[in-house]
Amino acid sequence: MPNVNWYALWLGLKPRMLIFLEKLFWAALIALAALVALNLATSLIRRFFKGRKRDPHKEKTLETLLTSALRYLVYAVAVMLILEQFVDITPIIAGAGVLGLAVGFGAQSLVKDLITGFFIIFEDQFHVGDFVEINGQVSGTVEELGLRLTTIREWSGKKFYIANSEIKTVRNYNREEMRAIVTATFPFEEDPRKIREVLEEVCREAAFELADELIQGPDGPVEPPHVHGVTDIDKSDKGGQFTITALTKPGSLWVVEKTLREKVWQACRDNGIRLAYPARVYLGGRNNEF
């Protein structure tokens, strides 16, 4: 009597059941081996990129890409090996052409995601760690850039998973220099010459205080904070609008704009200059409020 039948009788199982359990065991072992191999390979990839003297954002992007591609490869091989335990996969491989054609119609979006992901990385549109705005709707930090998905973390903490094929326009706030633009509106009753003098003093202080955030040339900031005077007359008759601009380093836009706004506000308070705000006017009577 074959050994398999002896073990089957000893366990009180039928031979077919024992064969099925044996195949199930090997399938579980293959799945476990795939997970171990994936974790080991991921660890090796991280170790390879760790400490290399290159752009850290670019390294993180390449690391994520390799890990993503490796994950798809390991999963595909593991699925084929597990299927081989239960069915003959030769006809499956032989009919891969027909199957691929059939699946292709249902997987067009997946193919688009993969192709778009490749071109995003190849064209160096953005890296992991960049602050971007996608399609004018979602803005945040790129946490993961894969072949199929891009993960964006908003400032509020919300996490967005965006299929690469859905990415149409990208605004990257971490590439090249950017121009900080700060506007402030003042009532018509205020003296525009006094306002300009106060704002010019704000710009001189900010040029010194924000030196590390501004694009520098041989003679100082290329475009230091500068007052452009009255750039608009508010359509709601609130007052005149003054504009301050400055050329900032990549990633320094918000720091410069925030600092300029705070300094403008404080300078106006110190010099008795009012900022414009909506007001109600009573002409008398109960129903004459404007």
TrEMBL record:
Matching entries from Pfam families are given as:
MS_channel_1st, MS_channel_2nd, MS_channel_3rd
How this chain sits in the membrane, per its record, is: Multi-pass membrane protein
Q: Which residues cross the membrane?
A: 24-45, 65-83, 89-111
Location comes to: Cell membrane
Q: List GO terms (cellular component aspect).
A: plasma membrane
Mechanosensitive ion channel MscS C-terminal domain residues are: 183-274
Q: Where is the signal peptide?
A: none
Give the molecular function GO annotations. mechanosensitive monoatomic ion channel activity
In what residue span(s) does the Mechanosensitive ion channel MscS domain sit?
110-175
Domain annotation Mechanosensitive ion channel transmembrane helices 2/3: ranges: 70-108
Main subcellular location of this protein, as a coarse class? membrane
Which keywords accompany this UniProt record?
A: Cell membrane, Membrane, Transmembrane, Transmembrane helix
Q: Which intervals of the chain form a coiled coil? A: none
Q: Which family does it belong to?
A: Belongs to the MscS (TC 1.A.23) family.
Q: What is this protein called?
A: Putative MscS family protein YfkC
